[in-house]
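Structure (tokenized):
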């Protein structure tokens, strides 16, 4: 397997563009609605990528409150810095999310948050509970912890598996929400809200599928010929190639502590 660097800025943009242009779910509108950014909030964004949530938070917060964000990709952070150069209430660092607890204690100006969130990032942090613990412990008494993650089935990955290129190490992501996140949230929060959103991508060309596939963590160069033959046949028959790629969101809070 020639695994794409999923944190690479170019690969991230390809996936974001595919979801925006070909998906049935307005993913970012859904996430923004549930983040519920408000003036004066202190926000922690773990695994911020090129900053969709950061930019929206800053737009709502204006000069009030703060946004603290980190990502392992230097390219993504540099792009975000360039887009937010005038934001004095943003603290942005290149770091592995496993270091978030230490960064809060030793580095970040803001130490506690109204919202700590991770969008399509936490699964790839490996030490999931360590990261969740750091995020939860950084919350203010009325703070919220919000995590969004992929939800199986991923139809494109399943097709590649069927073509003889399995990725068993990625199978955990399909049920990461129910197997890891939900037990953790229910152990520590009085109120837990779970949302699932179905998303169907309809790609109109072989080239669009090739570009998307090469940006994934389950890319095999050897799989491309068979995959693209299958895709070409689907497009000829139906006018598009479609697959399911869903999303899971969980939010925890302790309103009774007010």
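Design, position by position:
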């Amino acid at each position: 397997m020639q695994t794409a660097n999923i944190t690479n800025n170019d690969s991230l943009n390809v996936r974001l563009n595919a979801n925006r242009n070909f998906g049935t779910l307005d993913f970012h509108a859904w996430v923004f609605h549930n983040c519920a950014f408000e003036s004066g909030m202190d926000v922690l964004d773990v695994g911020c990528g090129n900053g969709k949530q950061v930019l929206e938070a800053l737009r709502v917060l204006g000069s009030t409150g703060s946004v603290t964000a980190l990502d392992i990709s230097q390219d993504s952070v540099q792009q975000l810095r360039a887009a937010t150069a005038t934001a004095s209430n943003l603290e942005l660092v290149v770091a592995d999310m496993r270091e978030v607890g230490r960064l809060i204690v030793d580095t970040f100006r803001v130490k506690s948050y109204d919202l700590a969130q991770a969008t399509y990032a936490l699964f790839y942090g490996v030490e999931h509970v360590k990261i969740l613990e750091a995020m939860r412990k950084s919350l203010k008494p009325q703070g919220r912890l919000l995590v969004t993650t992929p939800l199986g089935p991923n139809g494109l990955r399943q097709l590649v598996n069927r073509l003889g290129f399995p990725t068993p190490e990625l199978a955990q992501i399909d049920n990461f929400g129910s197997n890891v996140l939900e037990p953790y949230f229910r152990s520590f929060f009085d109120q837990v809200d779970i949302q699932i959103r179905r998303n169907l991508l309809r790609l109109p060309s072989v080239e669009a599928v090739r570009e998307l596939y090469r940006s994934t963590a389950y890319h095999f160069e050897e799989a491309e010929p068979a995959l693209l033959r299958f895709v070409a046949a689907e497009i000829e028959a139906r006018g598009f190639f479609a697959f399911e790629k869903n999303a899971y969101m969980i939010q925890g809070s302790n309103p009774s502590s007010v």
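Reviewer-requested clarification: Residues 9-154+167-200+245-257 form a domain with the Rossmann fold fold (CATH 3.40.50.150). The longest strand covers residues 139-154.
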